[in-house]
Design a protein that fits this description.
Layout lengths: L8 H13 L14 H15 L14 H29 L11 H16 L1 H18 L6 H7 L1 H17 L5 H13 L2 E2 L4 E2 L4 E2 L6 E2 L4 E2 L4 E2 L4 E3 L20 E2 L4 E2 L4 E3 L4 E2 L4 E2 L4 E2 L8 E2 L25
Parallel strand pairs: 1-4, 2-5, 3-6, 4-7, 5-8, 6-9, 7-10, 8-11, 9-12, 10-13, 12-14
Helix pairs in contact: 2-3, 2-8, 3-4, 5-7, 7-8
Length: about 325
């Protein structure tokens, strides 16, 4: 007699059949994918290393700083090497002619070299983030101290992850940069592709809904507000109708550009010159020379007849 809680055999068979039919939504290889929980923990460890004393339970001083940095760097190195190794083995496993598995001499040595290369870039990541923090403080009169920005601001959280993920992206590390950037997207609402190139002293104010595409290039001392999209205008296809990858699809912003809330700038050929100001709600698909202000048309007001009040008059210039 079968258990009342036993699943019907046809239920399991149908699930198995659906898995067999959709090759691209299954992973049945011998190699293990990188572990997302470990990658997220890695980000926390790197953030504590980038901003020592701000995160974690250990009290730091000039006397124990070197020891702390050595211990933290070693922990990061161990986890990062393992995750890079898994990512490399997975990508090599996609090639039917490759027989490299996680832990093999070739993938492990390459993971080791990539880990060392990333760690060598940590001082530059710290330098850029220090400038980002200062830019946030200088650009937001509501900020009382740079400590508040490091602790609380979603823009700095997103940029901390991006500065890390971008260096891994530049090193051609598979999968890990996207896992990191999508985690940042989840917790901040800011979506920055790890391939985007962002100059120093960058500030995202408020941040919710900001989208920065893969081939975006942003200069120095730029500022974006919530809801800004730096996206692609269209996706060129080849003769078979497939998207052509690797092209410049997203805009370029020069130095000291400010883009206000809900503006959309699209296209790989779109270049916004130095010192431009793009007003809120603007939709742009063409380049703008340096020093210009671009603003949307004023909304049309339709007045209700009211004998007790005069007609409404616009005041101020706005942008």
């Amino acid at each position: 007699m079968s258990s009342p809680h036993e699943l019907p055999a046809q239920t399991v068979d149908r699930v198995v059949d659906s898995i067999r039919l959709t090759v691209h939504t299954r992973h049945l290889a011998a190699t293990h994918l990188p572990n997302t929980e470990t990658i997220i923990r890695l980000l926390d460890e790197i953030r504590a290393l980038v901003f020592p004393g701000f995160f974690g339970s250990r009290t730091l001083s000039v006397h124990n700083l070197a020891e702390h940095v050595r211990d933290a760097t070693e922990r990061v190195a161990i986890d990062l090497r393992r995750q890079i190794n898994a990512a490399l083995a997975y990508m090599e496993g996609l090639d039917e002619n490759a027989a490299v598995a996680a832990g093999s001499d070739s993938s492990d040595e390459r993971a080791h070299q990539l880990t060392l290369a990333f760690l060598d870039r940590l001082p530059e990541i710290r330098r850029l983030l220090a400038l980002d923090v200062q830019a946030a403080y200088d650009g937001d009169p509501a900020a009382r101290h740079t400590d508040e920005i490091i602790f609380c601001y979603p823009g700095i959280k997103a940029m901390t992850v991006h500065r890390v993920a971008h260096e891994l992206y530049r090193l051609d590390v598979p999968l890990l940069p996207r896992v990191m950037s999508e985690h940042a997207h989840t917790i901040t609402g800011i979506d920055i592709h790890p391939g985007a190139t962002i100059g120093e002293a960058f500030f995202i104010d408020h941040g919710t809904g900001v989208v920065i595409g893969e081939t975006t290039h942003i200069g120095r001392n730029c500022r974006l507000y919530q809801g800004v999209t730096l996206g692609a205008r269209s996706f060129p296809t080849d003769g078979t109708g497939r998207i052509i990858r690797g092209l410049k699809r997203h805009p370029t912003l020069g130095d000291r550009v400010i883009v206000y809330a809900s503006a959309t700038i699209l296209g790989g050929d779109t270049v916004i010159g130095d010192d431009c100001v793009i007003g809120g709600g603007v939709f742009l698909t063409r380049s703008v020379p340096a020093g210009y202000i671009v603003q949307a048309s004023r909304p049309e007001l339709r007045e209700k007849p009211d004998p007790t009040t005069g007609p409404f008059e616009w005041g101020g210039s706005g942008i």
